[in-house]
Amino acid sequence: MEGPSKTVEPFMGHGAGLGRILAPEGLGRGFRPQRGLNLPKPKSLESHFLQFSLNAFQVSKLTSLFRAVEVLNLCLTMKSFRLILSLAACLLLTSRAFCSLVDEGNAKAAKGDFDGAIADYNKAIDLNGNDAVVYTFRGNAKRNKGDLDGAMADMDKAIALNTNYVDAYISRGVTRQTKLDFDGAIADFKKAIELKPEDVVNLNNCIGFANWESAQLKPVIYYHRGIGEKEGNGNLDAAITDFNKAIELNPDYAEAYNSRGYAKRCKGDLNGAIADYSKAIKLKPDFAWAYNNRGWIEFLETNYDSAISDATYAIQLNSTNRSFYDTRGWARYSKGDSAGALEDCEKAVGLSRVGTWQAVETQGLVNLIRGDYNMAFQQLNNSFQNDPSKRYLLPFIEKAKAKLNSK
What is the mean pLDDT of the chain? Predict the structure, then answer.
C-alpha cells in the first residue's frame, strides 16, 4: 500500500485525474527539464507531438513517463495548449497501457503462469520503472517460481522507491522466511507493523487483485511473524502471542488457528491443539493440513479410527503430500493393519527427500513391519535420540528391541 505524498500524489492509473497521471512520484511542483536535455525547437516540437497524437498516440516512442513530464513542463512554458492536450493524451494512454500490463500480469500470476506474468511486469517497468507496486508483484512471481534472489532484488527495489510501502516489506519478509532468514523476516514484519497499515490509503489503482484493506493486512503480518518466531527462533510463546493477535484481528483466519494449534502441540497442550485444528477445519473445510494435524494428535492419543479418518480425508484433498500418508501409516500399524501401514509408509518414503529425518523415521517403521528389526531399531532409536520429545516412538523402539532379543 502506498499513501499519497504531501506535495505530490502518486502515479495512480485507471480512473485517476489528469493531475495524478502527470505527476509520477518524485517530481515536485517546481520540476523543470534537466540542463542539456536535447529537445527539438518549439515549432518542430509542437508539430511533432500533434502528429504523434494523430498517429494513434504511439506511446512506445516515449522512453519514460519522467521524460514525458519533462517535455510537458517545457510545453507549459511555451503556453501551447494544443501541444499540452496532445501530450496529456499520450501520457494518459501510456498510463493505461502500464495498468493494463500490470492487470494482465496479475491475471497470469493468479493462474500460476509466473513466466507470463513476469514478462508483462517487465513491459510495465519499461513504461514506468519507478512504481514500487509492480516491482513487488514481479518479486512475488519470481518467488513463486523459485527465484528467491531475483525476488529479493525486486523487493529491495520496491522499498528503495517507497520506504513506506507496507506490502513490499511483507513480501520481502515472506521471501526471507522462504530463504530461512527468519531474523530478517521478523525485522520486515516488525517494520510493516510500525508503518501502521490501518493509516495507509488502500490501493485502488491498476492492481487487478490483492487490494489489501488494513483489516486483512495486519493479521497477515502477525501471522508470518509468528511463523518466524516458531520456525526460526523456537520461541513458541512469542509465536502463540502473534497468532493470538492475528486471530483477534481476523477471527476467520484458518491458517492462524492451524499454526497456533501446532505451537500448542509442541508445548504439550494437545487439547488446545485439537480445538484449534477443529476451528480451522470449520472455517476452511478443504484445509488438508488441518485434517492431517488433527489426525496426528488423534494418533498420539490412541484414537486410531479418527486419526485414519482425518488422514484419509487429507489425502483425498492432496494426494502428493508425504506427511498425510505418514500419519495414516502410523495409525494403521498401531491399529493392527500392517499391510495398509506398509503401503502408506512406502508411499511416504517415496515422496520424501532422501536423508531427511521424516524419511529415516518412516523407513524405520517400514523395516519394523518387514521384520528387519535391527535396522528398524537403529533408525527409530536414532530419531528419538536426536529429538527426545518424540516419545511416541518409544513403543515401536521397544518392540524392535524385543524382537531382536527374542532371536
Answer: 74
In a domain? residue 158: no
Cell of 224: 508470518
DSSP 205: S
Among 280, 275, 224, residue whose Cα is nearest residue 251: 280
Q: What is the pLDDT of residue 155?
A: 93
CA distance 205 to 100: 11
Centroid of chain to Cα 214: 17
The boundaries of the domain holding residue 69 are: 18-96
DSSP string of 250-302, one letter each residue: -TT-HHHHHHHHHHHHHTT-HHHHHHHHHHHHHH-TT-HHHHHHHHHHHHHTT
What gap in Å lies between CA 184 and CA 171, rounded to an integer? 12
Question: How many structural domains does the chain have?
Answer: 1
Asked if residue 3 is part of any domain, the answer here is no
> How open is the CA angle 359-256-150, to the nearest 5 degrees?
70
The predicted-structure confidence for 351-366, as pLDDT tens digits, reads as follows 877 556 677 888 999 9
36 found inside a domain: yes
Q: Which residue has the higher pLDDT, 292 or 223?
A: 292
Phi, psi of 229 (to 5 degrees): -65, -40
Contacts of 143 (CB under 8 A, 6+ apart): 151, 171, 174, 175, 178
Task: Give the mean pLDDT of 144-156.
Answer: 91
Considering the domain boundaries, does residue 183 fall inside one?
A: no
Predicted TM-score (pTM) of this structure: 0.57
Percentage of residues in the chain having pLDDT higher than 90:
38
